[in-house]
Design brief:
The complex is a heterodimer. Chain A is an all-beta fold. Helix content of chain A is about 0%, strand content about 55%. In chain A, the strands form two sheets. In chain A, strands 2, 4, 5, 6, 9, 10 and 11 form a seven-stranded mixed β-sheet that branches. Chain A has a four-stranded antiparallel β-sheet with strand order 1-3-8-7, with no helix packed on it. The radius of gyration of chain A is 13 Å and the shape is globular. The N and C termini of chain A lie far apart (about 35 Å). Chain B is globular. The chains are: A mainly beta, B mainly beta. The interface of A and B includes residues 42, 45, 48, 107 and 108 of A.
Amino acid sequence: DARVTQTPRHKVTEMGQEVTMRCQPILGHNTVFWYRQTMMQGLELLAYFRNRAPLDDSGMPKDRFSAEMPDATLATLKIQPSEPRDSAVYFCASGEGQALGEQFFGPGTRLTVL
Amino acid sequence: SQQGEEDPQALSIQEGENATMNCSYKTSINNLQWYRQNSGRGLVHLILIRSNEREKHSGRLRVTLDTSKKSSSLLITASRAADTASYFCATDGAGTYKYIFGTGTRLKVLA
């Protein structure tokens, strides 16, 4: 059955290291979202793509975060350099159609930056 | 910010009882959605209600929307232990293209 996949599921790294998280949206979905979830801030929208074009990345710290969609089957979120405050669960979600509707979430990447 | 605020933050009930969660938001919306998140998992969509709808049902779920009060409620009837999860509302802003998620209600259903 169709689902959003994310890799890796868990990542432990040291401060200053580069982290790349990957997401495979559901085939045929044309919208992709990146979220970050922490106990303190809840679920925050980091970036939003439609038809592979970035429409909004205002939620991302621009100096260290970047999000791309090299093709329709892959979305990446990169942090360079990583900091302890980036520790969180990062979710990718995809959806279809022009109008906003249901988002299908991946299982998340749990990132720990030491 | 148009972030939804869920109330209560946590709720503990016995199996078979009904659970009601509320969501309040700040600006006008096109749609409001409810999601469930089991521990350690991603969010799962439950139901979407449009701004011109007042009530919607899906199985044991009943969602109401009062745009004049900028609030919505999610009712789970005849709760089961498997309903134990966090529940989030998500609102879009009229004229925007993205959803903002609320802070969530942690529901615990005791067997």
